[in-house]
Design brief:
single chain, about 210 residues, alpha+beta, Peroxisomal Thiolase, Chain A, domain 1, 4-stranded mixed beta sheet, two-stranded antiparallel ribbon, about 30% helix, globular
């Protein structure tokens, strides 16, 4: 909600007109975030998978739809077209993990990526890790030493939803905009995947190129 109220997310959204009865309304704000949600309400939700489990609808990503777009190209081609890039895709890593522990995927993916590019965890200014479930992010924070003040500052899958095929680009937009706003150099995007995978990508602020 804070990212909506501050206008951060609005800078990424192109409003569209959608049918509503006999007229049309402008659609320009994410619908998933819920005002008035309290810790007490979240604690009252029933476990989703096991009777004694901790995973509930309140700490799981929402089922939503959405759309996003971004142009990807070489620096030479962009310059030839008179277009200024906003970020560079530096490298990425894809790993496999035990399928029953698919939520662990971001940890080895990020670790492998950092090794490939010869950077440490503290060289990364910002992280976007998909909140398939809250425990995915808690595990990554604990295992990698990622501080809360540089991780998912603008909401994640739990708050704004997790539309398959869109989430990765939504994370890219957040990370790119964060680097532009703060002058940071590097950001990592990561997510777990069903059947036991983890993916991570390193991007660099175009201002540093």
């Amino acid at each position: 909600l804070a990212a909506i109220e501050s206008g951060f997310l609005g800078r990424q959204i192109q409003p569209v007109m959608v049918p509503s009865g006999r007229s049309q309304v402008e659609f320009a704000i994410d619908e998933s975030p819920r005002a008035g949600l309290t810790l007490e309400k979240l604690a009252s939700l029933k476990p989703a998978f096991k009777a004694d489990g901790n995973v509930t609808a309140g700490n799981s990503s929402g089922v939503t739809d959405g759309a996003a777009a971004m142009v990807v190209g070489s620096l030479d081609r962009m310059r030839a077209c008179g277009v200024s890039p906003v970020a560079k895709i530096v490298d990425w890593a894809v790993v496999g993990v035990e399928p029953s522990l698919m939520g662990h995927g971001p940890v080895p993916a990020i670790s492998q990526l950092l090794k490939r590019v010869d950077l440490g965890i503290n060289d990364i200014d910002y992280f976007e890790i998909n909140e398939a479930f809250a425990v995915v992010n808690l595990h990554a924070e604990a295992q990698l030493g990622i501080s809360r003040d540089r991780h998912n500052l603008y909401g994640g899958g739990i708050s704004v939803g997790h539309p398959p095929g869109v989430t990765g680009l939504r994370m890219m937009l957040n990370a790119t905009q964060h680097l532009q706003d703060t002058g940071g150099r590097y950001a990592i995007l990561s997510m777990c995947l069903g059947a036991g995978q983890g993916m991570a990508m390193l991007i660099e602020n175009a201002a540093a190129l």
